[in-house]
Amino acid sequence: MSGTRRKQEGRWAWRLTGFVTVCVYIFMFAPIVATVILSFNASMFGGFPMTGFSLQWYGKLMANDAVLAAFRTSLWIALVTAIVTTAIGVTTAFALVRFEFRGKQALSTLVILPALVPETILGVGLLVLIKAVDQPRTMLLLVLGHILLAVPYVVLIAQARMIGIRRVYEEAALSLGASRFSSFREITLPLLIPAVVGGALLAFTISFDNTSASLFWRPAGVETMPTQILSMLKISISPEINALGTVMILVTVGIPLIGGLILQSLTKLRRRGEPKEETQ
Amino acid sequence: MPDSQDMTFHPRPVLAGAAGASAAAEADSPAVEFRDIDIAYGKFVAVRDFSLSIRKGSFVTLLGPSGCGKTTILRSIAGLVDISGGQIMIDGRRVDDIPIYKRNIGLVFQSYALFPHKNVFDNVAFGLKYRNVPKPEIARKVGKALEMVRLPGSEKKLPSQLSGGQQQRIALARAIVFEPQVLLLDEPLSALDANMREEMRVEIKKIQKETGITAIFVTHDQEEALSMSDRIVVMNAGAVEQIGTPEQVYETPATAFVADFLGKANMLAGTVSRSGQAVVLGTGQTISVACPRPLADGSKVTVVVRPQKFSVGTGTSGNRLTGRVVSASYLGGSAIYEIDIGGKTSLRANTPITGRVLREGEAIDLGFDPEGCVLLDDSGRRIS
Asked: What is the ipTM of this complex?
């Protein structure tokens, strides 16, 4: 019967889809899993087979001053980037959504541009600019560069949220006697919180993860985590790198995950049923 | 609630430049006054030459179809829209240059606009907080306002936990709790379902009477306008068509637009005969009319007759029209007939049922009193 045949065909199609999906996941996650597993390998050589379980590479990492310094540097840069980028991004999004002004379209494009330009070009560009005005490469430059890279994403997130916040809330606050600043602080900002938290986390990870642009911008003698790993790899593939990689994974996956959970509990508190506005 | 003794707090901002106005003069001055207001968005003129004076404590409705400028006018009082010409006065004080948050007006939106992240108490207390009212006083006033809208004890609830009608009541409490000089209501009932709408209509009117607050209400619903207002301002295309009491605008519409917009009046075109004592309709029938002044024979007029002015049957006095029933809707106490009186003219009659309901295709006799109709001239204005 054609019915059963079709059913059979359907089953095979599903099986094939499943197989491909599994392959893709393996391709994507196998290196990560391997890195995490090998970081606990007792062997001197960073590869399979495992010779035993050990935490010695983590211990070594803790004793490695260069690594610790790089970790601290990355953490600081990412924190500053997250805070500054969120402030800039949220206010820019607010202005872009709420106000009409000359050059709005241009500003909107300009803000997003760094996300579209290849990082290497951005890296070289900023470097050339700094050279042109005869300034040394400093930490400030590195942080500014990271902010430049992260701002587009925060603006996009905040803009999407901002569009969802109806203007009547602000109008109601104003009519009740709150100044424009007060109404932003008391009404708009709290409603924007999911975008603020999400944007900050994204900015943090973008900065913490960044390799190529950081290579161009970092001052002499300063390493961030990714550049530190890169320079360690140049010497040898030590199992220490696996441990370091595992720490990186923990930070870059863990932080957005925690943020997501916080967000979820926040939005659960204020899930709201809004009436549909009739067009008049 | 005429100025109760315990209301010691007066939220009115202290004004510079108003010192000259004596207390007596202020009591007499209208609550809101528009003087030749123009409002334009770029090249589009939304409101033209709008003038209106609203007495203290009255309930005034701006009524009109979509895009007639009624909401724009409301928003201009609030300061959410800038006027491009003229003056707006609140209690005799010019407010054109005063920012919205210093105008002391209560605003109720169609979509409630309760702050979703604040509970009912914080929503209602919002206006008081920005007027530096001491905390115990805030709690007392919020409690009182919630009692007034019949939702006492709901302080801790979030807006999302309330129904649409309840949310709108909280919004109303939020807008009146700080005793604003004017209460502005922008289609507050449109988002509610039909049953709720009727209940809220009564409630809003009651609260307005109790508080004695001046209210300006915007709606496109003629029933709401007729049932709630002290005065109705009928608007069309950015200009005023008529200002009057509900009876005035309904019974004696000033223009063809008003006659049609309020209650879908029958408009019968015809020519004057017997120096304004009678009108020959396009259908050839002649009806006598009560014209307030003599008219030249042969001039074109429109006779406006409300559907309710007709009576069915042969035993009626006054004018008589005969026709055929095109459709009949039975409404229990009354029936609505669509009647073809020939010459491509159809009438609408809404009459109490005496005897039986006529069916489609049956002949029908309609009677109406000459006093019960209004005459419009060639340009659609009422002849008076």
From this structure: 0.80
